[in-house]
Amino acid sequence: MDTVREITPLTQNDCFTIFTREKKKFDFPLHNHEDMEINLILNAEGAQRIVGDHIGELDNAELVCVGPNLNHGWFTHHCTSDAIKEVTIQFHKDLFDEHLLKKNQLINIRQMFENSKRGIQFEKPTIDEIAPRIMALGKKSGFDSMLELLSILHDLSISRHVKLLSDSSFTHDQFSYNSRRIKNVFEYMNNNYSHQIKLDDVAKIAHMPPASFSRFIKARTGFSFVDSLNEIRLGHVTRMLIDTSHSISEIAFQCGFNNMANFNRTFRTKKGLTPKEFRENYTGKKIFV
């Protein structure tokens, strides 16, 4: 079972492309592409969003940044609007040279591009500020349009009203953790998620006392050790729910969950669906090619 590989209209001679569509329904299948994408959707309350292994429902306004090669799609679902407006900006993943992105003035954009590998949802305060500028971007041309895109990217990158959508272990891309200790710990958890992993185990890898490491990982990632481990395991769970026909209990045990009640509770809390509902929702949006 495969996802549609889209060839975007963006050419090598353009920095970016922008197109606006007015529609009554969403009819494009789940897909991915090499280019990065910012998608603004208005008047589509009740529609469904899939980004990576995230499944969610739209409010009246939606603004999402999707990184390269990340599965994504929007679907009519419970939306009854006949006046959906969608504005999509696509730009090359190497729009900024790697060396340029390492400069201090672009540190926020660099981090946003890193986060886009999981998909970024911008919340209402940011949408209210940025949406009018995105809708006006198509009226600009040449150098002025490029300057405005850079300004939009910068303002998005410093927004505090964001949510990362997909679990980190769902994608095969490598993430930058800005800490060798955190990187080593996450590599260990990714390689051993099917086994029992204790705080003492990862603290030793980080060369820190358990209590100190517990505070350290929370400060660096925003998540506790247990939450970080569960996210890694759930990323592998969702990949197997999509790509295999294994039973849900078999998948849970293979991914390190030894208690089905705890697994189901953890999955539903994070995903908003049961594992069975997730599999049915996700696979129903894929096509055979």
Give an overview in words:
With 289 residues, the protein is an alpha+beta fold. It folds into 2 domains: 4-164, Jelly Rolls, CATH 2.60.120.10; 180-283, Homeodomain-like (Arc Repressor Mutant, subunit A). The protein has 11 helices and 11 strands. It has a 6-stranded antiparallel β-sheet with strand order 2-9-4-7-10-11, covered by helices on one side. Strands 6-5-8 form a 3-stranded antiparallel β-sheet, with helices on one face. The chain has a two-stranded parallel ribbon with strand order 1-3. The mean pLDDT is 91.
Low-pLDDT runs of 5+ residues are: none
Strand order of the largest sheet: 2-9-4-7-10-11
Overall average residue pLDDT = 91
How much strand content do the residues show?
15-25%
**Tally of extended strands?**
11
Q: Name the helix and strand elements from N-terminus to C-terminus, one letter apiece.
A: EEEEEEEEEHHEHHEHHHHHHH
Question: CATH first level of the largest domain: which class?
Answer: Mainly Beta
**For the report, how would you describe the main beta sheet?**
6 strands, antiparallel
Oligomer: single chain
Envelope shape = globular
Cα radius of gyration in angstroms = 20 Å
The number of domains is 2
Number of helices: 11
Could you state the CATH homologous superfamily of the largest domain?
Jelly Rolls
N-to-C span: 7 Å
CATH topology-level fold name of the largest domain: Jelly Rolls
What CATH architecture label of the largest domain applies? Sandwich
Helix/strand structural class: alpha+beta
Helix content: 40-55%
